[in-house]
Specification:
The structure holds 2 protein chains of 2 kinds. By secondary structure, chain A is mostly helical. Chain A contains 11 helices and 2 strands. The longest helix of chain A is centred in the first third of the chain and has 39 residues. Chain B has one domain: MetI-like fold (Orthogonal Bundle), CATH 1.10.3720.10.
Amino acid sequence: MNSDKITKGVLQSVSFIILLLAGGMFYSLVEGSIPAFREFGPGFIVSGEWNPRSGEEEYGALPFIAGTLITSVLALIISLPLSFSASLFLGEYYRGTRMAKILGSMVDLLAGIPSIVYGLWGFYVLRPFLIELGVPNQGFGVFTAGIILAIMIIPFATSLSTEIISMVPVELKEAAYSLGATRSEVAFNVIVPSARSGIIAGYILAFGRALGETMAVTMLIGNANIIPNGLFSTGNTMASLIANQFGEAGGLKLSALIAIGLLLFVITGIINAMGKFIIKKMD
Amino acid sequence: MMSNSDNKSIQSQVSRRKRKDQFYHGLMIGLSVITILPVILIIFKLVVEGIGQISLEFLVQTPPDSFEAMSATAAGERIPGGIANGITGTLLMVSVASAMAIPVGILTGIYLYENPKKFLAGLTRNVSDILQGVPSIVLGLIAYLWVVKHITNGFSALAGSVSLAIMMLPMIVRSTEETLKMIPVSIKEAALALGVPYYKVLLRVLIPTGFSGLLTGILLGISRILGETAPLLLTALGSSRINLDITEPVSAIPLLIWEFYNDPNMVDLIWSSSLLLMALVLFLNVTSKQIAKRKK
């Protein structure tokens, strides 16, 4: 019996590591960003300046918060019809067929492609194509980054929606069919309303993914420290700024980058908690 | 009584609804195909551009310096050397990260499975879920603050491993809990009824029964961290030689791809390196799927 107590104690204390990790992460990010917040105050979040020249150092997070939100929202809008169609294909129209199996594993594969490979493909294949279509700035900018992000988040939105769509009770669908509804009418008037919260949760989690993507965005957004002023404007995101500027950072600049990391940590945390909360409420 | 014109309007309404249905059906198929088009295009590009560089030499040698690469390109030859430092670095960091994340993840998963209703378990589950959504670049910052600054006093393989381990941990926790939940309770109860100590029930009954599920989760976790670049830029930094000392900077396949991408003379190596990385990820994905399928 004594050994049982020890086993339980071990399990409990090991699982405490996750809480310690999360707490420690938050603490370290806050501690690291104190110099930046002390220097610039809460204005750090709303200032649009990013000037690392020593002597006149001035850091603000607004361009990167804006860049992150714009690219992620763009990605969400582009991926919405695609992943919605794919989840209807997988979860309703062709559920259980060979075709669905192939399509499903292709979508899964999208999640397996490393971010840097997406970046290379975006740089060498997508960007020349967009230049051809007349996209300015050598094809760099929030639009190009948004397209690549959209492709990257498709599997996250699709997998949850597919699961929820395939769980819609058959009776509901049959009732609608027996009234003479067509398949698309059933899809839009029965399946979507009853799977709505799951579909929304999937998109929220996918949005959270988009916010933190780094390499592919860095390679395509143009890395200009300005607030994007249009669909094809260049810009920078919080994640790609950290990746770009970290190498030569020290002192106040390092603290500013950590502060941006903290903001990113908090924003993605809130978005993910929202998504999980909706999923939990569904059960 | 239905008049002739009513009948006609119903017929036209039905055929309109049918056409609409067909339109949406076609649209759905079309958009679904567009969804998977990037996978095909990306893999096609990697194979076409990368296969020519792949050779035994590519796997066992370190990259040439920029000048050597430039003269080879100028002479129209294949760029000499390979990415052995990246392959060993990736293997080193993934192994160390797995050694840290797998035991903690499995034990935490067992704890969550055993205490589904406890407040502390619920909190741990939620925190683990949130941790899974933390961007990898932030994990790089954390490993920098903890390991680079305080433990190894410089960029190191250990720091890279820590960032990868934190990334992998929530995935293992989740897959362990989900796997154990699917094991019939009667199996565990039978063992307990025989008076077997609890730790033996875990080691001899629960873990072996759920082994393939746990393995699937682990392989998927590894395939996720294999291609990570961003956190390694902040932690492992990169190294031009083969290094197996975890307190020293080390390279990795994705880090090398990033270096090649930034060096115009080496840029021809990006596709072959990406092809190799993609092949590794694919291999792990397929293997884990096969294991999951055999379990069923």
